[in-house]
Specification:
Blueprint (H helix, E strand, L loop, with lengths): L1 H21 L12 H8 L13
């Protein structure tokens, strides 16, 4: 019975983590922000370039 309790607690923690990370966490990230823009914002000291423009 104890192992079922541990499994239930772990699953509950995972669900809470997913909900917390999917909430948006702030205004710094929006759905239209590209990965390049996010990386450039985090590493302003460096210039992010695109190596391949199209696939």
């Amino acid at each position: 019975m104890d192992k079922y309790l541990v499994v239930a607690i772990v699953i509950a923690i995972c669900i809470v983590m997913v909900i917390y990370t999917q909430r948006g966490g702030g205004s710094s990230r929006s759905g239209n922000t590209s990965f390049k823009d996010i990386v450039q914002k985090e590493f302003m000291k460096y210039k992010v370039i695109e190596k391949i423009k199209s696939l």
